[in-house]
Amino acid sequence: MSILEVQNLSISFQQYTSGLKQKTTRVISSLDISLNEGEILAVVGSSGSGKSLLAHAILGILPDHAILSGTITYDGERLTPARQAALRGKEIALIPQSVTYLDPLMRVGAQVRTAVRNGDAAEKQRRVFEQYQLDPAVEKLFPFQLSGGMARRVLVSMAMVSGARVLIADEPTPGLDPAVMKEALRYFRELADSGAAVMLITHDIDSATQIADKIAVFYAGSTVEVAPVKDFEESGERLRHPYSRALWRALPQNDFVPIPGSQPKPGSLPEGCTFAPRCEHAVAACASVQPEMRELRGGMVRCVHAT
Ligand SMILES: Nc1ncnc2c1ncn2[C@@H]1O[C@H](COP(=O)(O)OP(=O)(O)OP(=O)(O)O)[C@@H](O)[C@H]1O
Ligand code: NI
Where does it localize (predicted)? Predict the structure, then answer.
């Protein structure tokens, strides 16, 4: 059952260009996504495609100058800013992409303990530190005294002790050593198997295919495809969107063929399909109308040609 639904989400930023002139730049457009209990949805896509902004929109932590439209529902009820504040870190937890989200003035053991909702906080914090190979002495340290990898393990620990029903992990693994990374991924799987919904934002398609149930592919501020993980196999011929196939084929273990061109920047998005300028199947119509997301073979795709 779906626990979190994002419908027709768009996000823009209003920025001053020169003097008092304002410019509105749309960074996410008409994005739909849903998270199911018991499932891991991996979100992949290149840098700047809008993955972190989606996470921040769900948590209600976008910067003040962000303009948001569309609806986000949690447990069948619309998420308002007040509800987001009440659920944040409790029912909906984030492992942020940046370690600057730790409170600089609070010892890290105490920070992790504040995230515990049920049971013995001290005991849970000690156990989770052990699980992620953090020495008991780390408890007493402040964030600035941690290495990048340690800070990341503290962030993962905080989310893990929260007992949240929805976990959004934004690039949780870079800088972790392979053993700790494997442990974290295994734990995401366990969380999902115990009924939570997990959104794993990652550049690492390989890890995503190992633990996710579905993969959403982002491109230039929206999803171009949502596919069951089994479609990411062999040469990717079961994938629905030309960009997903290109992304899959560009991996070193596949053909290692790069995609010519680059993702358009917000503010200079093409009129029609955002991928059309790089797509070998593009026809005139692709350049004029942005395709709608539609269901196809047990997944979703935003391409008029996909069959
Ligand atoms: N506060 C902001 N003001 C203006 N533009 C922003 C702001 N935050 C993000 N953006 C723009 O929104 C777009 C999406 O950013 P986002 O951080 O969501 O990308 P991402 O997919 O998470 O990338 P990465 O993989 O590098 O983390 C980028 O073009 C970024 O420059
Ligand atoms: Ni990001």
Answer: Cell membrane
- Amino acid 220: pLDDT: 95
Beta-strand (E) ranges in the chain? Answer: 2-16, 22-36, 40-44, 66-74, 77-78, 92-95, 166-170, 197-201, 214-219, 222-228, 294-296, 299-301
Closest CA to 34 of 185, 166, 220, 184: 166
Instruction: Please report whether residue 184 resides in a domain.
Output: yes
pTM higher than 0.80 for the full model? yes
> Which residue CA neighbors atom 9 of ligand 1 most closely?
53
Over the stretch 95-111, which tens digit does the pLDDT of each residue have? 998 888 899 999 999 99
Interatomic CA distance for residues 21 and 18, integer angstroms: 6
Q: Any bridge partners for residue 16, and if so which?
A: 22
Inform me whether the pLDDT recorded for 1 exceeds 80: no
Q: How many residues does the structure list for the chain?
A: 307
Q: Which of 14, 15, 25, 51 to mutate to test the pocket of ligand 1 (most atoms within 8 A of CB)?
A: 51
Structurally, the chain folds into a number of domains equal to 1
> 109 alpha carbon to ligand 1 midpoint, in Å?
31
* Residue 220 covered by a domain: yes
Amino acid at 41: L
Looking at residue 84, the DSSP 8-state letter turns out to be H
CATH code for the domain of 14: 3.40.50.300
The identity of residue 77, as a single letter, is: E
| Closest by CA position to 92, among listed 191, 184, 4, 222 | 4
For atom 25 of ligand 1, which residue has the closest CA? 47
Q: What residues pack around ion ligand 2 (CB closer than 5 A)? A: 51-52, 97
Q: Which domain holds residue 278?
A: 2-91+164-301
Gap between the Cα atoms of 18 and 16, Å rounded: 6
